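hey so u asked for the seq, here:
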Amino acid sequence: MTKRMWCWPKSLVRDDDDKQTVFVKKVLVVFASLAVLNGAIIIPSDTGPYLQAFGAVPQTIGGIILLAQLLIEKRVRTSTTTLFLILVSIAVILNDYMASMTAATRSWPFSVVILDAALICRLPQWVNVALISMIVAWLIFCATEEAYRWGLYDARWVVPKDSRTKACDCKDPPCAVGFFQGLIIAATNLVVFLLDYYFTRGFAQG
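ran it, structure tokens below
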């Protein structure tokens, strides 16, 4: 293994790992760490929307399982990686549903990064089809609500009342979200853009 095939942490790298395997491990470590960090921020929040926290729990568990498996076995297992990506996709959809109802930052673009990770890890074709089908079905579902307003965004039990009303509680709605929320929006878009570039570049370089 050459010095160029460095991976953090180094304990995840086996002596017989090739360059592509090390890159896959790096991608999974970054992705799983972000998932766990995101869950650690959302789950303890008393004011966070219910669906967002509900999606963050399995996402965080999946991230912890994946990191533990990589650390213990030092191998990339298809089953563990598939489970993690499916759980993250579910969390993305639930979070996007919440965002649709409260005029917050939509999270479905993260599905691009999820699909990048699936391709880089060279998962079975059925996994790619399943991930794509989940997001496509959700986007079509949202499109029908935009077209017919049949009530997808009216489930009052999903998010606290104050989260639903603050987007329109001003003289000229939708209301300004403030500096902190604007910072989150910018960070979200930048994370998607930069991770997509990082994953794609590494995949292209082999």
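The helical segments are 19-42, 50-73, 78-102, 110-120, 125-148, 161-165, 178-204. Confidence is low (pLDDT under 50) at residues 1-7.
lmk if thats what u needed
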